[in-house]
Amino acid sequence: MIRLFDRWTLDAPLVVSIMGLSLFGIAMIYSAGQVHVPNPVTAEAWVRQSVWFVIALVAFTVMSRIPLRWIEWAAVPSYVVSVVLLALTLVIGEGRGTAAGVKSWINLGFISFQPAEIAKLATVLALAQLLSQRSSALTSLRDLVAPSALVALPLVLVLRQPDLGTAMAFGGILFAMLYWAATPVWLLLLVASPVFGLFLSAYPLVWSVYIVGVVGFLVLMRYRLFLFESVMVVLANFGTATIARPLWNSLAEYQRNRILVFLDPEVDPRGAGYQVIQSKVAVGSGGFEGQGFTLGSQKRLDFLPEQHTDFIFSVVGEELGFIGTAVAILTFSYVLVRLVRMAEDAGSEQPFAGLVLLGIFGAWLVHIFVNIGMTIGVVPITGIPLPFVSYGGTFLFMSWVAVAVAVRVANERP
């Protein structure tokens, strides 16, 4: 007899750590709403986040009891549904707040949600199923066509919204899972080389040296790659360099400005550079111990836009200082390391489980690195939330569903 719900085994260290991050996030969202001129939207954001937290815990409780075979069965259907929702978002989607021009939300009247958040987990499951069914290793570029295409479809749809931050998470998913599937590192670097070439094309001399290096590497690897594959890598690098200028011109003005101010925030200190400048001031003014919970001066003066969402880490730095940010980063690091350890425990007997865990790892790693990086000015501003801490109902809900899936697949034994 097939049971709908299997035995319930929790990974206590992982769940407790993430529970702590979620409660910490609610507290910081509450603090972000404490400003001199109250805004009803941000002042009550912590209440809405608390409601979503309870809903997410209910979903976690249910999902973590579902047998692994049910999750595997749902992988492809959930992927198809998520892609359809992403396509629908381009037609009826709407923006929110400062990202009003980004069509990433679907409004059903009684609730609004982001299909991209659903698509991330669905893509992880579908890709894990695809890779786990292979009987041989991924050793050539042709082997990477199917998994890359599977991820490219939702990625392109998300870019069309346009939502660069979330699209980057799909890249993290792909490379983390391909690496776990024993894809040689040199092959992954070849796949990523056109992207590197795109950025280096702004410096012709550097790009020329880079291309010579790529060609030289391909010559060294001539016994591992077909001639056609080597030619395609070179053409792809030339292709990205060729489209660099048209691609730059096709970007919206605010997107170009974000890249320029990343290189030099003082270029537009009252415009595109305003957020990163204020964020760095807030983090720097926190010092070692911080200014105190709810007492951040930059935050209270409302100098920092989106301080309860994308720039929540700036509030952490200002009010809790080095101690608070260090504890947060160490907790995130523990969660990521724990996911890898769980994948290692799954071993070769459970390839699907290991791949799912690394896919979740890849998505969260991108979110954490880019979000914290943009608050201190080491990466361009892209609008990407911090897992479990930033405000966002759909993001929190799907993050906890991902935790449930991780716990379920990690504790399933053949």
Q: Can you give a write-up of this model?
A:
The chain is mainly alpha-helical. The protein has one domain. A two-stranded antiparallel sheet has the order 1-2. A hairpin with a 4-residue loop joins strand 1 and strand 2.
Write the layout of secondary structure elements.
Layout: H1 12-32, H2 40-43, H3 45-63, H4 68-92, E1 106-107, E2 112-113, H5 115-132, H6 145-159, H7 164-180, H8 185-200, H9 204-220, H10 227-250, H11 253-263, H12 274-285, H13 297-300, H14 312-346, H15 351-375, H16 393-411
Antiparallel strand pairs: 1-2
Helix pairs in contact: 1-3, 1-14, 3-16, 4-5, 4-6, 5-6, 5-7, 5-15, 6-7, 7-15, 8-9, 8-10, 12-14, 14-15, 14-16, 15-16
Descriptive key words:
414 residues, 2 strands, disordered N terminus, 68% helix, mainly alpha, globular, 16 helices
Tell me the strand percentage band: under 5%
How is the largest sheet built, in terms of strand order? 1-2
Strand/helix succession? HHHHEEHHHHHHHHHHHH
Mean pLDDT: 84
The radius of gyration over CA amounts to 22 Å
Specify the biggest β-sheet: 2 strands, antiparallel
- Domain unit count: 1
Per the principal axes of the C-alpha atoms, what is the gross shape? Answer: globular
Topology, number of strands:
2
Low-confidence stretches: 1-6
The percentage helix is 55-70%
Quaternary arrangement of the chains shown?
Answer: single chain
Distance between the amino and carboxyl termini: 17 Å
Number of helices: 16
What structural class do the secondary elements suggest? mainly alpha
